[in-house]
Amino acid sequence: MTRYPADIMDFMDMFPDEAACLEYLSLIRWPDGYICQRCGGRDAWKMSGGLYRCRDCRYAGSVTAGTLFEGTHKPLRLWFLAIWYVVNQKNGVSALGLHKALGLGSYHTAWEWLHKLRKAMVRPGRDRLHGIVEMDETLIGGIHEGRLGRSDPRKAQVLVAAEEVDGCIGRIRLACIPDASGQTLLANTLEMVEPGAAIRTYGWRDYNVLPDHGYIHEPCAHKNANEQDATPAAHLVASLLKRWLLGTHQSAVSHEHLPYYLDEFTFRFNRRTSCSRGKLFYRLIEQALQVGPVPAKALNTTSGR
Q1: What residue ranges do the domains of the chain occupy?
Q2: Using H for helix, E for strand and C for coil, what is the string for the chain?
């Protein structure tokens, strides 16, 4: 079987029915052959509906067990169509747009599916940023009267880390943060950036904890920087993020669910130069098989979009 479809016609030919979708998942999950989830045995009978019965322990395991697709009551082919639609939209898709495009049962079904797919957009064990990395914080939220800046509880703080590669922006990482204290910045930096990297900031004093943990800190106030901007890459990423939230989602994103949207933006930005939509489809399917089940009740569908 071809690794991934080249276009929509190729997609329709590759996945005409449920059996083809199950076979595709099997090939991606077990490229070297079936592995029993209970005993690790490799000898099994292939059964219908994506089930495999181990010859050693007789355990019947499903190709969707322990994956994002576990327990779904919708056809896998509809899931595949949703994933294909999501990766083929340059600026992403809203729950309302997915609901209309695929004729899903309800808006909430589309909303849940998108959040589950956003969860899969974070590759388990992904590499941290390295080399030269710009870091800055930005506020997500509209203009409100009253308190300004970080003190406004109606705005969410997001930490932006942008890797510099040959004078251009490489990969990025985004994270919601409760504050810009040294403890918070350090914890997120350790998760985002490989120790030994040179981290460029705008001079906020709480970044001064970084050298004690293996980082090279390069603080520079905006007034002292060339062209009056110490972290232009981080600012550009923040600007693009806000434009995307406004354009695709009309800024109707609650603070509670903002991390899901940050994961999607990071996935899209880091793969912006990919010429193959089919390869993105393949990668998202591959990661959906690794993240584990995402129960709908864990998403709290009563709020947010």
Answers
A1: 132-255
A2: CCCCCCCHHHHHHHCCCHHHHHHHHHHHHCCCCCCCCCCCCCCEEECHHHEEEECCCCCEEECCCCCCCCCCCCCHHHHHHHHHHHHHCCCCCCHHHHHHHHCCCCHHHHHHHHHHHHHHCCCCCCCCECCEEEEEEEEECCCCCCCCHHHCCCCEEEEEEEEEECCEEEEEEEEEECCCCHHHHHHHHHHHECCCCEEEECCCHHHHHHHHHCCEEEECCHHHCHHHCCCHHHHHHHHHHHHHHHHHHCCCCCCCCHHHHHHHHHHHHHCCCCCCHHHHHHHHHHHHCCCCCCCHHHHCCCCCC
Per-residue pLDDT of 241-258, as tens digits, reads: 999 999 888 877 888 999
State yes or no: pLDDT of 275 exceeds 50. yes
φ, ψ dihedrals at 106, nearest 5° = -155, 170
Query: How confident is the model over 207-246, as pLDDT tens digits?
Result: 999 999 999 999 988 777 777 788 999 999 999 999 999 9
